[in-house]
Amino acid sequence: MSSGQESVFPEYETDTSQTSKLLRKFKETPFVPIGMAGFAAVVGYGLYRLKHRGDMKMSLHLIHMRVAAQGFVVGAITCGVLYSMFRDYIGKPKE
Q1: 83 closest CA partner among 31, 35, 25
Q2: Taking the complete model, does pTM exceed 0.70, yes or no?
Q3: Angle, to 10 degrees, between the axis of helix 18-28 and the axis of helix 31-50?
Q4: A GO biological process this protein is involved in (predicted)?
């Protein structure tokens, strides 16, 4: 972009690093990284248990793993929404 033109997206062209942007987002929505970490943990545990599943069919094992991962993410989203509502309406009531 030449110096004479105005920026189309000025909020994306700041001097902040990617790490500071990521930390700012985590502070704004703390349950998103918790949900992502939980999802990764459930999938990792499921892959570990895949080796020792015994007589259980592969499809049944994968369905259980998917349901557990989705349940963790939905739970984290629900907690995030409740936390956000508490912070906005109860923690700092508008006057």
Answers
A1: 31
A2: no
A3: 100
A4: mitochondrial respirasome assembly
